[in-house]
């Protein structure tokens, strides 16, 4: 699916919070049509990096581009669906009302919006809970609703920060099936994860540790280059730890 047209370009980016350097001289290109995974342990800098991609964090050094435009730039936001790690939902409102609110922010309305609401709720398998107040949703249901919101305006780029945390394996599989379907229609997808099995599902991966990029490649390349039988083992080898 990947076209080798770079839609994200990160050039020697570093970021510090106070004295803590959270991203260290990262350079990376992500191509149109990829399912690209950012894999790393908790605190590695994944969230900081994805926020930077869409202009929510600004680097101290280096620069990053989205659709060839230097970030931060507000005008690109409609082309991106972003699902943050913590759910930004209105608990008092029903799922439908949440979707209507976020849809209206993207200029969706009327029958088109209602049809789209039904489509995205089908994808995340929440249709029967459409009229339930969100404070009655479980953690996994909230994650799925957040995903539905990110999909609502049919963005060409989806950036998903740990999209399947708290979601059971059966539903996780069906959500990944939905990612592949969207990807087949041309959507580029970036996911952060610390789940190795999930990383295997990506076309390409960047391994992050302590704010540094330790390797980039397809899951097979990463395993072959390190003589590893799993991504977990490859990660340890790249990280300088004997597997
Ligand atoms: N706004 C901030 N102010 C200060 N420190 C921050 C801020 N945001 C992140 N950090 C620190 O930066 C480091 C990287 O955090 P980040 O959330 O990017 O990691 P992560 O790989 O996404 O981790 P997780 O998988 O746990 O979400 C952590 O040590 C975190 O405490």
UniProtKB/TrEMBL annotation:
Q: Where is the ABC transporter domain?
A: 8-235
What organism is the protein native to? Robertmurraya kyonggiensis
Task: Report which superkingdom the organism of origin falls in.
Answer: Bacteria
Q: Which SUPFAM superfamilies match?
A: P-loop containing nucleoside triphosphate hydrolases
Q: Output this protein's name.
A: ABC transporter ATP-binding protein
SMART domains named among the record's database cross-references: AAA
Recorded GO MF terms: ATP binding; ATP hydrolysis activity
Fetch the Gene3D superfamilies from UniProt: P-loop containing nucleotide triphosphate hydrolases (3.40.50.300)
Q: Which InterPro entries match?
A: AAA+_ATPase, ABC_transporter-like_ATP-bd, ABC_transporter-like_CS, P-loop_NTPase
